[in-house]
Amino acid sequence: MSTTGTTGTTGTTGPGTTTGTTATTVDVDRSDADYRAWLKEAVRKVQADANRSADTHLLKFPLPEAWGIDLYLKDESTHPTGSLKHRLARSLFLYALCNGWVRPGRPVIEASSGSTAVSEAYFAKLIGVPFIAVMPRTTSPEKCRLIEFHGGACHFVDDPMKMYEESAELAARTGGHYMDQFTYAERATDWRGNNNIAESMYQQLKLERFPEPAWIVATAGTGGTSATIARYVHYMQHDTRICVPDPENSCFFEGWTRNDPDASSDCGSRIEGIGRPRMEPSFVPGAIDRMMKVPDAASVAACRALETAIGRKAGGSTGTGLWSALKIVSEMVAEGRTGSVVTLLCDPGDRYLDKYYSDEWLAAQGLDIAPYAKTLDTLLTTGVWREPTA
After folding, report:
1. How far apart (Å, rounded) are the C-alpha atoms in residues 108 and 151?
2. What is the pTM for the complete model shown?
3. Structure confidence by residue, pLDDT tens digits, 45-72
4. What are the C-alpha distances in Å from 346 to residues 129, 283, 357?
């Protein structure tokens, strides 16, 4: 850094002020050639990762042909880190790098329930900076293993509401950067296009019989994905509606229905990756058309129904979205409407074998999925949605 000054013919009383007619120029140059070289290389590596990756698949969920309805799942589990959060982590890193927030040798810290941390650990390793995930102690062991596999460290908290505060304090203590996905998710992604998830969906649907979906169903963790999709739909003037399902122990539904930005929940979501105990800054309520409150048992039943239908295990957040998408499909059948519906396959089920695919875990949680499984079976065989009963 260099500082130069040019003094005129009259006196000065401080930097940039004068007592006469001639000003003094105060010039502070913080150019750092080594940092800029590091920054260029870091951005190149993150962009190259995207360039190496093909687009994710749009899978078809089998429905009776007579219904005239197509249901798709955007399979985000095929990203290098295995989840929808790979897109978010890439956007967050590019945003933070280009803002000058991430610096060589200093740690990146994130408050995360798992998948975002896995993906951010990957990008931190890619550009050569340390990574620390601040997460609830109940996070699945498999996600912790994946974070550590990518070179990250896990920092546990007992109270999920303390994640934010602990992350900020840890960043202050270490001189690192708190990525803060819950604030920056909705602004880090270019929602107008640039191969975001919404643009990708529409490109992949171009040759389908219903290229403009009636509904896109997107669950919310940060709220960034639903915001990106909704904004793109509005910007492109599509008629598609956006539905955001919310799991138990999350406040998004209550905050949205009551128009209450201070809505909160006193405990964390059992469906990892979605649902929050507070209204997050990245959740954009005004952009979406509909919300559903989905019981956790319904989410698990839908996960298992997906495996039966297409032979793929998926995480609980996929189940939450699929349950809501199938409910929308049932409404279209009842009304005699044709069209398409799109939801997300957020991450693979092998991360949750000890949870959503474990009958012992379900019993310990007091979750009975049988009534919800019956609802789905009845729908797929008869086209009729019958609400679960005990």
Report:
1. 12
2. 0.89
3. 999 999 988 789 999 999 999 999 999 9
4. 27, 18, 16
